[in-house]
Protein 1
Amino acid sequence: MKLFIDTADLADIETIAGWGVLQGVTTNPTLLGKVEGEADDIYRRVCELVDGPVSAEVVADARGDMIEEGKRLAAIHENIVVKLPMSAEGLSATSTLAAEGIRVNMTLVFTPPQALLAAASGAAFVSPFVGRFDDIGHDGLECLRTIVEALEPSMYDTEVITASVRGPLHVTEAARMGAHIATIPPKVFYQMLQHPLTAAGIETFTADAEARKARAAK
Ligand code: E4P
């Protein structure tokens, strides 16, 4: 499973890209609202930091405006993927953009039928929101599993992006069920990295190496 980062924070992207684990980036208007700077400049810098798909979300809600905004975003960099919301207008705009070779990430997907519609419209990526589905008392991971299973035998090449990830367990389970991608907030990357026994082990090995060096120096 490929790992994307779900943020518009350039410092976080640069740091975690430095781990060598990132294959893409997703942003949304809320994430962009948390950082300073012009959106287009941020997208350009993100594309310099990570060599992979970078989702930039359209805010227009009418088909024609979505297409226009999507084309403008796609022109920023060849790695930009246009993010469109799941809706009749979004599906229609996706089919037009896809026919022109522009990749679309269909976002705010909560059911397998929505995912099938996204795939049929030509979306390159579909983003089921696991955490937000959990928040309203549903089983986000089970929904993700059904979407992965439903799209797997289909004739579409649509990749499933596990979105709205809230913790390392979401990532592990998404990988186990065969999701193509998980887009992960920076905080969750750090949770994935750390374990108290790893930290304790490093401390012990360092102390033992120092002790050996001290004995040899006597
Ligand atoms: C996906 O592309 C979205 O940006 C994101 O995963 C939304 O998740 P949230 O529930 O953390 O806002």
Protein 2
Amino acid sequence: MPLLYADLVEVYDRLSSTTKRLEMTEILVDFFKRCPSGVIDKAVYLTQGRLYPEFIPLELGVADRLIARSISQAVAVPESEVTSLYKKLGDLGKVAENLLAKGKKQVTLQFFSGDRSREKLTVEEVYKVLDRIARSQGEGSQEEKLRLLSDLLRDSSPREALYIIRTVSGAMRLGVADMTILDALSIAFAGSKDAREAIERAYNLTSDLGAIAKSLATGGLASLGEAKPEPGRPIRPMLAERLSTPEEILEKIGGKCAVEYKYDGERVQIHRGDDGNVKLFSRRLENINGHYPDVAELASRSISSKTFIVEGEIVAVDQSTGEMLPFQELMHRRRKYGVEEAMQAYPAALRLFDALYADGRDLTLEPYPARRKALEGMTTESERISLATQRVVDNPRSLEEFFEEAISEGCEGLVAKSLGSSSIYKAGARGWLWIKYKRDYKSEMQDSVDLVAVGAYWGTGRRAGNIGTLLLAAYDPGEDMFRTVCKCSTGFSDEEIRNMRSIFEKSIIMHRHARVDSKLNPDIWITPSKVLEIRGAEITLSPIHTCGMGTIREGSGLAIRFPRFTGKWRDEKAPEDATTVQEIVEMYRRQLKKVE
Ligand code: ATP
């Protein structure tokens, strides 16, 4: 017996009448038990308001305007009537229901035909039409969608029309969480919630509730087998818990752990299957190849395993220096158009942090150290692709130092990772195997500062052959020293970059100047002479810069995060007139107070 769409509509009605998870589970259990196994996958997707699992990049994508036109054609009323009713009701689904009910009443009165003996819609039929709507693309597709939708509405009852419209407009929102569906599947097909764990693992590894429902309905629990990752199907991401001190982290994680830079970019899961195609999935499991064709290409050529699933963070980098840029720069990639331009202007780099699958080997059940080793083995590192910077620590001090280093390198903080034998990849779970350590505050640097160039680095890419980055310092009048506070590569015009060599020509020296205090070793040393105006995001503690070293915390100096040249060469200032170390320390303290 085929499943009638009206039956599914009744389930929708019942689901929308409650917000209680237990009641929803019961409604679904009852439904799954009687749903024919051939359409259960489709029924599951439809209940979630979609046609396919999230990772299939096909969307119904029907705009409100087109929906309004379909309703108007289906019920033969002017489009203006549809739009004015929409303004009143605020829900195109209700508009369709309303107008269809009115139309049907008129037909009944006119022809005394009672209930029209139309064929009743089945779930299979509705799904087929919606699938054709989703797949219709390119020239003539709008007319095709319009025709398909209005025909479907003509064949449906008012209540069915309500849900069809809500489905095509992406407004189903029945409030059924994935977890509720998992509970219901377990009870319906295994008799109790006991099978929930096995079902959930399958779900976490395949991210496809419809396929799981179908497999349970046709072959029972045994058919799920031991779920394995499969390239092409995104794995639900493992997530981190959060703590706010190194002491707490070490205590929770067993005294010793690996800490990795927490990059401030976009998480990506990269798959390559037997067909050789590379697929990128976002944290929400959407396919994002369209935003990052360069990242797909980069991974494809730098990872040696024939088939693999790895995870990492996409970060925006400065073209000429390779340094990381703030996260917002990446968001240009999320625009609908102009990906090509954005790719040029905001090149992306990859920092890999996990390997989940390689050439038939399921790595998700292996502990973190083994996964990291596998990742190392399969990646050919270069400037644009590398493993997340990592260190193993066993005391709060080293952890804190590494944290400051991460911040001064433009990261958000650290992710501490358990090294224990049970440190598997827990797909879809937020747990204590990973603990993030982020800064709790963020504040803007109010004032710009005037800093002195004491060193420089050669540029790469478009800046090859020119100076691309300056090492900048604040002045310490007490000791008559210049102490480094940041490396700056942004804010310079192309012309300034071209002229940079001649600007500094006379000041270049072979060794660090005696009045310069630096832990860094730039490509070129410069006699302190030129002063530049700089604006940064904030001041942070840093183990690599010497400005204010030991003043706030032993072993730490201060750094300006995301420094940017304002365009002002302060030629009227002598290097001794630059912002002082003491001023930077005060700015840091003020920043802290503001946060408190
Ligand atoms: P947040 O907003 O803090 O990134 P979240 O909920 O997206 O939180 P969490 O699991 O809590 O994710 O934090 C870890 C996130 O940090 C990952 O989702 C990933 O995007 C990012 N990240 C950056 N570097 C790493 C790394 N080395 N290891 C793991 N995750 C990393």
Protein 3
Amino acid sequence: MELRLILGDQLNAGHSWFRTQDAAVCYLMAELRQETDYCRHHRQKVLAFFAAMRAFAAALTKAGHRVCYLTLDESAPWPDLPSLLAAQLEAYQAERFAWQSPDEWRLASQLTQWASGLAIPTAEVDSEHFLTPRDGWRRYPHSRMEFFYRALRKQYRVLLDERGQPLGGRWNFDAENRAKLPASQPIPAPLTFANEVSDIDAMLTRHGVATIGSADADALPWPVTRRQSRALLEHFLAHCLPHFGRYQDALSERGWSLFHSRLSFSMNSKMLHPLEVIRAAQAHWQANQATISLAQVEGFIRQILGWREFVRALYWEKMPEYRRTNFLGAERPLPGFFWNGETSMACVRHAIRQSLEHAYAHHIQRLMVTGNFALLAGIHPDEVDTWYLGIYVDAIEWVELPNTRGMSQFADGGLMGSKPYASSGAYLERMGHYCKGCHYQVKARSGPDSCPFNSLYWHFLWRNRDKLGNNPRLALPYANWDGQTTEQQQAILTTAEHHLLHLERL
Ligand code: FAD
Ligand code: SF4
């Protein structure tokens, strides 16, 4: 008997493990308190993972595999993964144990350490999901995502002509992908599912699992099967891809996912393979070039082939030290309004309330609204990480950490991005429509009613000058700051100091 462990984010039906049925192999899947409790998750996230795991176990059983699935009720006697595994090895009289490489450092080290003490043969196999190996940081050009991405475009022959050159003569159409959403632009209704998960919800309540955010257990909107994930992909291609790149940086209260795909949960749980998504997008664009420009599909593919693989490579190269980085020495606690959305800043309020309601915010909300605010306010990266790791349905540490600590908080000193993603209210006004209805004045740089993003932006640059002053990409903002009169600078800094003292009241 060989016992094979499948973790909750390893729902890869295409894995070579499943090519043949073998009565001497048993697949073990378990809902674990260790996983519900390592951080406080959004309720929809726990429901979606457990529902998807149950559906995957049922599909494996139907396909003729032998499966042992333990619900939270059944796994309750074992407080953590090692004790549960030890008990199951014993119960099945297993002669071998195998597991797929976990994506999280936390689980990888736990399993490796535990398995090293076993007397029976063990095997760790690849999860067969990513397009680069774990040590991709060393194998690909890694100084910037763009070079990493180009190498992968060539390796997987994505959007290339017959000479191996990028279609359209350019690798990157990012400059064309920064439009504000016009009021007249219709937004496609997001495709949601109505998965009935009230039994799981009741089980979470029974076990006292602490969660954040709201959930409708009669109609969980996230895809929990491969079939639903494929439907979401098809919906994205038909309705969102035609404008994906153009509006990928847009902010709007008119929708909660705009032209974004919401495929991150399906990919991070491995119900969808990234190459499958990339190839589908390329094929759909090829068949619809009259209505979809190259810039749209290139922008989408870059997120998956470029950013997704790049952050994973960075994560595995730099962990575990990465999760302690704090280059800017940020120390403030996260304001309470991150947990309830009660703030007068209209843009922040919308992003947080939407996150609590949907367990989702699109990239620009995460980066330029909530992340930008936390960066400017000097919130400790540990606190920012805890929030991002819990609140989003797609949040798994390998992808959350480099995005939060690195890209959004610049805590890694510039490994993810060459400069901090810091902006004043002007950027948010340019990309969104919140400012008109906001309590604060976006044009004002100082004074009690001035947009907090303005004074905090200058204060951020001013207080971090020793660390950021030599960054060539910040030369212009520093020159702008130096060009202001001492009185102007003093008024801005005084306003910012006041905001920083009273963050909870913003
Ligand atoms: P789309 O905009 O439709 O993009 C398509 C796909 O590209 C995504 O599904 C995702 O797989 C990939 N992608 C896009 N941007 C990135 C990126 N920067 N890094 C890695 N993959 C990317 N993504 C997560 O999957 N989990 C997280 O926990 C997470 N935390 C984040 C925290 C912060 C502070 C920031 C700034 C970004 C974070 N991201 C995270 C990246 C990105 O915001 C999400 O992948 C994206 O918003 C998911 O929505 P979508 O599927 O609609 O994406
Ligand atoms: Fe956000 Fe400032 Fe605009 Fe208000 S004024 S919505 S705080 S950018």
Protein 4
Amino acid sequence: MQNILVTGGAGFIGSNFVHYLLDAEPDVKVINLDALTYAASPENLENLPDPGRHVFVKGNILDRDLVNGLMQEHSIGTVVHFAAESHVDRSILGPELFLQTNIMGTFTLLEAARAFWSGKGLEHPEVRFHHVSTDEVYGSLGPDDPAFSETTPYSPNSPYAASKAGSDHIVRSYAHTFNLPTTITNCSNNYGPRQFPEKLISLIILNALAGKDLPIYGDGRQVRDWLFVEDHCEAIWTVVKRGVPGETYNVGGNNQPTNLSIVESICDLLDELVPDQHTPRRNLIKFVTDRPGHDRRYAMNIGKISRTLGWRPRHTLQNGLRETIQWYLSNMDWANAIRERNEYQKWVSKNYSQREKQA
Ligand code: NAD
Ligand code: DAU
């Protein structure tokens, strides 16, 4: 058995990764460390394939004793690190937690891994610290700029992006200075099942189904590079298994619609799949005050991971969106459980009352 410590495995991408890994790899056991913040959903870990190979631990990556203890108790060979504060809007309203979790949390994990693996032997083939990061570390592109590559200089614009950039630099330094076998993936915007409905696509699907406003920040002409979450999970596992220690890999979906056009596509798909009194749902679109410092355009050059490791996204945006909407339609209990939590309601009213004040 390969014992893998997954952090943040009750959140959106982490839980999809746990499902993916247990399904794809019969000889892997997952130790899932998650603090269960507002963004986590215990429901994300229901119906796991072969749940006997999954151990859930509620705890904080900042808790050194806990992390050191888990490394030893489960003889961890591989760490796949997702846990983070992940929402740009929240980082604007309250940056401090982002610095603590994303920078100091990553540091705590690196120290625990270094201490434990120094005894085990860093050259052991299972030994790997994989850090899950973002394209936002590269900043924002102009309309004609080439897509971000692994050599694009870091230029993070939001406190979230800066905290992820800081964590990437610390990971890199542990590879360079201590020979820790690390890899980093910098990925673009994910969408798919189990995404907390504060992010664009999940929020738009659930609001559109409920006949609520569909908020578009600013002019809606910002561009993101969307990747279906299962494709991201496959990219991460490919890099963990075959990526070169010390290297970073850009991951993206090879598509760059504007926010407005992706919201319109969701409206049209919902009108087709669930025609009801809210059709046509494009009428629910509402332009609201822009995000401060809003990055205009992201695009990822995925040449390196495609060429060297053979990974490419399997989903187009159209079939990924359809699959995503179908998942939400079949899992309205999941959505209702989240919506009923106080934290979610508090966040929505805080975010939008702030926008009304700015307007
Ligand atoms: P998420 O917010 O849905 O989940 C984060 C998870 O981390 C939650 O389960 C939360 O409880 C847990 N967590 C937070 N602080 C913790 C702490 N101190 N200790 C233990 N657990 C803690 O995030 P996500 O969208 O799944 O993103 C996962 C990772 O992928 C993050 O590192 C993010 O920066 C990165 N990423 C996300 C995207 C995206 O589009 N969502 C794209 C690229 C990279
Ligand atoms: O690029 C990768 C990043 O993608 C990840 O690192 C982050 O963790 C993840 O949150 C995401 O960041 P974004 O800020 O790009 O995602 P979000 O879903 O919040 O917003 C996507 C775009 O949609 C962005 O231009 C802002 C806009 N938006 C968002 C929301 C929530 C709206 O217009 N209306 C909204 O209500």
